[in-house]
Amino acid sequence: MSPAVIIFIVLALVAVACAVAMLVSKNAVYSALFLVLNFATIGVIYLMLGAPFIAVAQITVYAGAIMVLFLFVIMLLGGENLRLGEPLRGQRLIGLIFGAVLLAEIVLLLIFRSGMDQMVGTLTIDTSPAALGLEMFNKYSLPFEVTSLVLLVAVIGAVILTRVDPIRRPGKPDQDRKDQSGRQA
Amino acid sequence: MIPLAYYIALSAVMFTLGVVGVILRRNALVVFMSLELMFNAANLAFMAFASYYQALSGQMFVIFVMAVAAAEVAVGLALMVAIFKAKKAVDVDEMSSLKG
User: What is the C-alpha radius of gyration for chain A, rounded to an integer number of angstroms?
Assistant: First the structure.
């Protein structure tokens, strides 16, 4: 086995172990931290594939921005310790069986496909941010604009969903309003 | 040099773990994290094939997937906060008001 294969297998084991730990840990904060480690590992695999820009974006966007948002909301809502109960009887067993079936299906598809034994090295073409930017604005300018619109809509949606509603329905207990007026007074 | 199958196998295992997490966990925040795991599995497959075909388009897709995932997380977590305000819970079993 070449050193690259050994490094890859170690990284893959860490990634899968982190994913499993994320699924089974009771505390949602631990889940989020395991997911951060998983994202970092995948970032290292991207480096091995010869894509440094994507690797750094993976760390900053996923492990940095998205997971910090997750941790913030987990701690804000106090969703750390939710029971690992089973509301439907046998749900866990059936879910695991379905997961195993899905995995078996994907693996069988890979086995029956040709070309999967080919080797992948690192990218030898130019993958610098400049080359990516040129590609993005030459070939993918419309998707880029659509993505910017998606982000704008997401920002507006997030603001509208979380804002405190000034118009209350009649007959509804109005605790937020009372809290606010109390703070002002 | 690493066989392409290794990358795809890792991607498949991570995707399956994400699916199992969405099915089994009742904490809506962990369900969201499992979705992120599935996004990452797809990204890994994109990157493996980008290296295999020596093309930049795979990396472009990964960038777009990241942007859409960020938007999805922003809206999803805002929804979570709104649902928590109304129901005082982040359990997906509590979110069954539309059930007939």
Answer: 23
Report ipTM for this prediction.
Answer: 0.91
Q: Is residue B10 part of a domain?
A: no
A62 and B26 in contact by Cβ < 8 A? no
User: Are the Cβ atoms of A82 and B69 closer than 8 angstroms?
Assistant: no
- Write down the pTM of the prediction: 0.85
How do the domains of chain A map onto residue ranges? Answer: 128-166
Contacts of B30 in chain A (CB under 8 A): 22-23, 28, 31
Treating both helix axes as pointing N-terminal to C-terminal, what angle do A141-162 and A129-138 enclose, rounded to 10 degrees?
A: 90
Cβ neighbours of residue A43 closer than 8 Å, sequence gap 6 or more: A55, A56, A58, A59, A62, A63
Residue B71 structural domain: 26-91
**A182 min Cα distance to partner chain B (Å):** 19
CATH code, domain with B57: 1.10.287.3510
Domains identified in chain B, total number: 1
A17-69: pLDDT as tens digits: 999 999 988 888 999 999 999 999 999 999 988 889 999 999 999 888 999 99
